[in-house]
Amino acid sequence: MNLFLMIQAAGEAAAQGAEMTDAEEKVTINLFELLLQGGWIMIPLFLLSFIAVYIFIERYLAIKRASKEDKSFMNRIKDYIHEGKIDSALALCQSHDNPISRMIEKGITRIGRPLNDINTAIENVGNLEVSRLEKGLPVLATVAGGAPMIGFTGTVIGMIKSFWEMANAGSNIEVDMLAGGIYTALVTTVTGLIVGIIAYFAYNWLVARIENVVFKMEARTMEFMDLLNEPAN
């Protein structure tokens, strides 16, 4: 008898498990299908996400190239200038493709002029280099701020859609009538926030990397100006 009860209990448990599995399968939804529930408002959000990814990758590679520095570069520049080999110093600068070498090259071409003029020329080149490094960052910042706003626009559109269905249904309101508008509202909001948050963190990370490059540029400028201020032997 006990064995029969155990078999019956096991059968009931298996049946309940099967029912739960069927229920889970019914509520499972594909991610792509879920995103489609956001409607046309998802198109600009997808475009903004692609723009943000492109700018981040492109700027990351550009900043990585700009941050590379030959440790012996300034020592060789010092040796060439002390030896009076200006052409060799210029050739060394031209062989390196980074902001620091271009700034030092401009300073070397101004040797013989007042130090203030040399410093100003170097700063002008530095400002141009920083502008090149920051290219695209305003767009990334716009994506960070604009994507959530577009998502919230989708929220408003979805709620309007739901209320419209409610108004037309009269007293025969069903949950299925409101589901489409609610899906639009929630999916667009979440997508907009995700795109905005990722773009925001990417923007600040790139800004921090640029500041590190600028610090190196300023340090090498001071080092070069100190070299020109050294008394002649």
Automatic annotation (TrEMBL):
Compartments, as annotated in UniProt: Cell membrane; Membrane
Transmembrane intervals: 39-57, 137-160, 180-203
Domain named MotA/TolQ/ExbB proton channel: residues: 97-218
GO annotation, cellular component aspect: plasma membrane
Keywords: Cell membrane, Membrane, Protein transport, Transmembrane, Transmembrane helix, Transport
Organism superkingdom: Bacteria
Topology in membrane: Multi-pass membrane protein
Predominant place of localization: membrane
Biological process, per Gene Ontology: protein import
Pfam family, one: MotA_ExbB
Coiled coil: none
Family statement drawn from the similarity comment of this UniProt entry: Belongs to the exbB/tolQ family.
Protein name: Outer membrane transport energization protein ExbB
Organism listed in the record: Thermophagus xiamenensis
